[in-house]
Amino acid sequence: MPEINEALTEIEKHRDQIDEIDKELVALLNKRAGHSLVIRGLKPDAKMGLFDAKREEEILTKICGYNEGPLYNEYLREIYTTILKVSKETPSV
Predict the structure, then answer these.
(1) Distance between CA atoms of 22 and 28, rounded to whole angstroms?
(2) Cβ–Cβ under 8 Å, residues 74 and 23
(3) CA-based nearest residue to 28, from 91, 79, 69
(4) Whole-number pLDDT of residue 93
(5) What's the mean pLDDT in 79-91?
(6) CA distance to 46, 56, 57, 66, 74, per residue, from 62 (Å)
(7) What is the C-alpha separation between 6 and 20, in angstroms, rounded?
(8) Which residues are within 8 A (CB) of 93 and not within 5 positions of it... i.e. 6 or more apart?
(9) Whose CA is closest to 29, among 71, 89, 91, 86?
């Protein structure tokens, strides 16, 4: 059954690539969270509220503009809405 073995080998290659991408995503999400926390700390001095619905919509619009697929914009918006929610809930360090 050489086709099965080839398919399994190919699956493992893609899984290894996904693992590497996940590692990069975690690092990038933490980097993003760090900037978000710095901004949160600066907002009171800038006389800004902690929540900015306009900015969040700007972010969601931008990420959809970056999208080249295969994910649909609505799914990216859902992912980013969760990222933004978690960023707001992350305690300052």
Answers:
(1) 10
(2) no
(3) 79
(4) 64
(5) 93
(6) 24, 10, 8, 6, 13
(7) 21
(8) 37
(9) 86
pLDDT one-digit tens code per residue, 45-77? 999 988 899 999 999 999 999 999 999 999 999
Per DSSP, 8 falls in state: H
* Tokens 């993003």 found at: 32
**Cβ atoms within 10 A of the Cβ of 56, count?**
16
Nearest to 75 by CA among 89, 63, 86, 87: 63
Contact 73, 60 (CB under 8 A): no
**Dihedral sign of CA atoms 69, 74, 75, 78 in order:** positive
How far is it, in rounded angstroms, from Cα 49 to Cα 29? 23
- Identify residue 14 by its one-letter amino acid code: H
CA dihedral angle for residue 60, residue 61, residue 62, residue 63, rounded to 10 degrees: 50
HSE (side-chain half, CA atoms, 13 Å) at 23: 6
Check pLDDT > 80 for residue 33.
Answer: yes
